Amino acid sequence: MTGAASGMGRATAHLFSDEGAKVAICDINAEGVETVVSEILESGGSAKGYVVDLQDGNAPSELAKQVRSDLGPIDILVNNAGVSIGGPIDSPDFEDFWNVTFAVNLDAQMRLIRACLGDLCREQQGRIVNISSTEGLGGSAALSPYTASKHGVVGLTKALAVELGPSGVTVNAVCPGPIHTGMTAKIPLDAKKIFARRRTALKRFGNPEEVAHVTLSLVLPAASYITGAAVPVDGGMRARNN
Length: 242
What we know:
Elements: H1 7-18, E1 22-27, H2 30-42, E2 46-51, H3 59-71, E3 76-79, H4 94-121, E4 127-131, H5 144-164, E5 170-176, H6 189-199, H7 208-217, E6 230-233
Parallel strand pairs: 1-2, 3-4, 4-5, 5-6
């Protein structure tokens, strides 16, 4: 599981561990990796940490090899790592924003899927969950690198669901909306409350655990006939017309 040192990734790692999974905690944040691994081990679960920079094009294949060696074949891949870098398209550094965002948010997902494919296909029941965003279902001004990368995640998910279906591998995307995470931590609380009241049906921001439960649901046997889905977890934000 990438991006597992904090936020939705951390919550998902704990939930998977609670269900008996051996969890690979992968993140660029070494301190966070160590903390989450310690938390899981102290609670009686099984986890091992890996510090990885997914901007490095060789990192996904090396990571998959190491996880396979340490924990065994990879049955479930959760592509959760992501960055959000905004700016108008005429920003001087726009192409740098674009390149970094795509390297982490989309290219790394593709490379990890390729690196894990042999394991995922071996028993015709592999599970891939790609974390996108409600930005992958719409758009916002001055956020086009992030928005475009998250649309790419949804497109990759749908295409691979069709391609890998005959192998028994399901591929789904989770599209979180306004969630209390590191990405939203800098938004003032009053602004969050106003946004939630105006835009969501539930009138609040969501919690990482609420996203984690949706991710878990998509890898359970009960979801074996769900593939190619992009599931919004947004408190009803996209359901509202006004």
